[in-house]
Amino acid sequence: MVPEAEVKDVLDELQRLRARVPLLTGALAASTDGLIVAQDTPGIEAEGVAALTAAALGVSIRMTDATGRGGFRELLIRGESGYIATYAAGSSAVLTLLAEDRINVGRLHLEGRRAGARIGEVVDAAQDRPDRPLPPPRPQQARALPRRTTPPDAT
C-alpha cells in the first residue's frame, strides 16, 4: 500500500493534470492489481474502473509479450463518447485517464506519459522505502523430540 503522504502527492498530480487538460473528465492511479492509489473521477465508480484497468493491463502485457513488442507502455481505447487511456506508471502502478471525444489525442498522450512517469516515481519510491524497520528475528524455540515407544534394539 502507498503511504498517505504519497497518496496526496499522486492526487495532487491527478488534479494538476486535469487542470492542464480541460477535456479530461477523470483520472485515476491504481496498482497493477487493481487497487486505487488516488482518483479524481467525478461521477464514475473508481473501484470498478481500477479493476477493469488491471484486467486490461493483463491482456495488454500478454499481447506485447506475444508480439515481441517489449514491456507495456500504454493502451488507448476509443468509444463513441470519448477515450480511455492507460499509461504505465513505474513498476507497480498505472494511470488511467478518461477524456471527451474532442480531445487532442497527441496532447492526451504527451500529458498522460509525463504524469505517468511522475506518479511512477512517487509510487515506486514509496514501495522501495520500508515504512518501519523489520522486527528483530525471533529466537528459535527448542523442539522436544518425540518419545520413542519401542526400545531402540527392537527393530
Compile the SSE list and pairings.
Elements: H1 4-20, E1 24-31, E2 36-40, H2 46-66, E3 74-79, E4 82-89, E5 93-100, H3 105-128
Antiparallel strand pairs: 1-2, 1-5, 3-4, 4-5
Helix pairs in contact: 1-3
Q: Spans of 5+ residues with little confidence (pLDDT < 50)?
A: 132-148
- Structural class comes to alpha+beta
| Strands, count | 5
Name the helix and strand elements from N-terminus to C-terminus, one letter apiece: HEEHEEEH
Query: What is the rounded Rg?
Result: 23 Å
State the helicity in percent bands: 40-55%
Q: What is the arithmetic mean of pLDDT?
A: 86
Tell the overall outline.
globular
Strand order of the largest sheet: 2-1-5-4-3
Which range does the strand content fall in?
15-25%
Oligomer: single chain
Major sheet summary line: 5 strands, antiparallel
Distance between the termini: 57 Å
Count of helical segments? Answer: 3
Folded structure, characterized:
This protein has about 160 residues and is an alpha+beta fold. It contains 3 helices and 5 strands, in the order αββαβββα. It has helices at about 5-20, 45-65, 105-130; strands spanning about 25-30, 35-40, 75-80, 80-90, 95-100. Strands 2-1-5-4-3 form a 5-stranded antiparallel β-sheet. β3 (about 75-80) and β4 form a beta hairpin. The longest helix has 24 residues, at about 105-130. The protein is globular and about 45 Å long. The termini are far apart. Residues about 130-150 have low confidence and may be disordered.
